[in-house]
Amino acid sequence: MALRYARFLNTVVDGTEYREPADDAPIVAPPEPNGAGVWEYVRGWAVAEEAQQYVETHQTRLAKTLAITPPGGASDRVLELGCYLKITPALKNRLGYGEVRGCYYGKLGRVDERLVLSENGETFACSIDLFDAERDPFPYPDGHYATVLCCELIEHLSADPMHLMSEINRILKPGGYLVLTTPNAVALSAIAGILNGLHPGFFPAYLRSSRASQGDQRHHREYTPREIEQLVETSGFEVTRLETGEFRDRPHPEFGWVRHLLRRYWLDTELRGEGIYAVGRKAGAVRERYPAWLYS
C-alpha cells in the first residue's frame, strides 16, 4: 500500500516514476569494535534462547555501541545503566576497563551479584545496583567513573530525564564520557508509519501488569537526534559524536519512497536511521536543570 501510494504521489507531483531500490543489496556486517572478534565474543555470552534472539535482533546496535565506547585502562571504571549483561563482559575483557558495574530499576540500596557463563565456559561476575534512575540519587561518589553507558534507557523514563542526566554528569570525572543510544523518533520507518496512518513509535503499546511489574516499561518519550544533541549539551557535555544507524543492518527497500519524498521537497535525509548514537565528553556542570523544550 505504501509503495502504491508513493508511486501515485510522485507521478502526480512531478511526473516521474518512483523506482524502488534494489532488494538484493548486500547485508552489511556489524562493525568490529576495537579489534577483530569482538562481535563473536558478544554472541558467545548469549547462551539462553531468549538472549540469542535479542542479540541477533540488535546485533548492529550492540556492536556499534561497543565501537563508539572509548576504551579504558586498568584504573578506569565504567557503569552500564539498564544493564542486561549482553555487552557488559566485553567492557572489561575487550575494552580494558578495570572495574565494570551495572545498574537496573529496583529498590534503592539493593545490590544483585550476577554471574554469567559463556558458551566457551568463561565466567563474568558483575554487581548490579538497583535504584530508580529518574528519582533516586545514584549510589556512587562524585567523579567516580571514566565512562557511563546509557543505552536504550532514556526513552523509558516517564517523569524526569534530566535527573538521570544530572546524576550521570555528577558521577563522571572531568573529561569522562557518556555513551547514549536511543530509538530515533524521526527515522524513515517512523515517517513511513505516519504517512500510512500508523503510530510512528517503536514501542507505543501499554504493558500488562505482569510485565510492567518486572520493570519492563514501554517507551514514554522517543527523541530526535537534535533533541539528544540538546539534551547532552544542556547536561554539561561536549558532543563528540552524533549519528544514526540500524538495530540490525539489512536492506530497507520499503522505505525508499520516504527518502524520495524527502529529497523531492528538499527535506533533510540525514540522521534517519532507526537508532541514535551519541557520545558526550564531560565539559562542566549541568547548564539547565529544566530546559524549556523538554519541561512545561
UniProtKB/TrEMBL annotation:
<dbReference type="GO" id="GO:0032259">
    <property type="term" value="P:methylation"/>
</dbReference>
<dbReference type="GO" id="GO:0008168">
    <property type="term" value="F:methyltransferase activity"/>
</dbReference>
<dbReference type="Pfam" id="PF13489">
    <property type="entry name" value="Methyltransf_23"/>
</dbReference>
<keyword id="KW-0808">Transferase</keyword>
<protein>
    <submittedName>
        <fullName>Methyltransferase domain-containing protein</fullName>
    </submittedName>
</protein>
<keyword id="KW-0489">Methyltransferase</keyword>
<dbReference type="InterPro" id="IPR029063">
    <property type="entry name" value="SAM-dependent_MTases_sf"/>
</dbReference>
